[in-house]
Amino acid sequence: MILIKDATYLVRSADRIERNVDLLIEGSRIARIGRIDAAGYMKDATILSGRNRAVIPGLVDAHTHLYQSMLKGHRDDLPLVEWCERVTFPFVRRVLRRAWEEGETAIGALWSMLGAIEMIHNGITSFIDMDMNLDGVIRSWVDVGIRGVAAMTMVDQWVPDDLMLPPDRAREEMLSVIETWHRPAAEDPLVSVFLAPSAPFTCSEGLLSWIREQSEIHDMAIQTHVSETAWEVEQSVRLTGRTPLAHLESTGLLTRPLAAVHCVHLTDEEIDLAQQRDVVVVYNAKSNMKLGSGIAPIVALHRAGVPIAIGTDGAASNDLLDPFEEVRCGLLLQKVAQCDPTALGARDAFRFATEGGARACRVDAGVLDEGKLADVLLVNLTAPHLFQLTDEIVPALVHCAKGSDVETAIINGRIVMRDRVIQSIDERAVLAEAKRVGEQYGP
């Protein structure tokens, strides 16, 4: 049981702010919000002070690649295809060769912990990780205490042959991940599984059909990269006669819950299609900027009623897992793209990072209401860069706050970080081991 007393601001959602109230957590859920007498909870509850703090919903990273935590700072002068060929593919090739030939998979758990540490410190309580199926990747999230969605990448074309398993084996491994980790929330609330065709052009129609069928059988959502570059759209039209999202519609994938990542080069018809099919678009502003991919039409999508979430993308194309920076950068980019400061507001961006992200992850969180999952942050407001003389706390958080202002992170009703210290693991030991093992795989 956790009692947060006297929160200076309780941000229930982007538009619902309360002052000087308390929040009680029992088990994994928010039990009560209001004025609560602490006397009755002194023996059973951990009591946290909310004075000079904003208590907000946990932030959600709706798309990342945690393996890229080993690839920070590599190249900032390549477009997507060449970047894959020169940055990510060589590392993945070394990892998979050692895993398949020698059974060496320790690095997976380490990059997963490394990413989890960075995310928690920056206020991320839930995320979707499009990753390799390596032992320890998912287990690490449970050990650390963060809520994750395992979206294991599936491909059967375009990617070099030595980076792909034979189709039958790839499907067997995916079914094994589903059997092990895709459980009802009551059994294992920290982990669920999505199916993740890497992109429409990397998957045959047969694989996309299999993914749709398994999604129906196991009640799973799907995440995939869509229209990240103009080149991808040209490839799709050349190979299928359709643009990427329209191609996914033709395969039946849009009948399933879908998180479409990037969506930089959507047509007007595809924006309408996304709205009709309730596709969640995941906005990755910094990654798209670094790779020169373009600016996603977030304003048009938002005005059309398409749900939006925020993603950092991987730590090799961002290179930070910092939702505050991502939200701020993404918001300002839309204003300048439209030449209109009213095109999108701070409350919209905050909603993308909370409610939109929770929707993408299919978790019952994203707002602070009684009965919701207790994914909660305490943000310290005493730093000079957060000094303000108004009560406009959401714009202040979006435009001024940093990941380092997150003081305490509660995930699934458990204090995972307190006073900036993660409670479940030895951070220094993980960092030292990640460096030792990572150096064996080269730059």
Q: What would you note in describing this structure?
A:
The protein is an alpha/beta fold and 443 residues long. The protein folds into 2 domains: 2-58 and 367-422, Roll (Urease, subunit C, domain 1), CATH 2.30.40; 60-361, Metal-dependent hydrolases (TIM Barrel, Alpha-Beta Barrel). Helices cover 38% and strands 23% of the residues. It is built from 14 helices and 17 strands. The protein has helices spanning 80-102, 106-121, 137-144, 167-181, 205-218, 230-240, 244-251, 268-276, 285-290, 298-303, 323-338, 346-361, 393-400, 427-438; strands spanning 2-13, 16-26, 29-34, 46-49, 53-57, 59-64, 124-131, 147-154, 191-197, 222-226, 258-262, 280-283, 308-310, 376-380, 406-411, 414-418, 421-422. Strands 1, 2, 3, 4, 5, 14, 15, 16 and 17 form a 9-stranded mixed beta sheet that branches. α2 packs across α3 (137-144), α2 packs across α14 and α11 (323-338) packs across α12 (346-361). It is globular. The N and C termini lie far apart (45 Å). The relative contact order is 0.17.
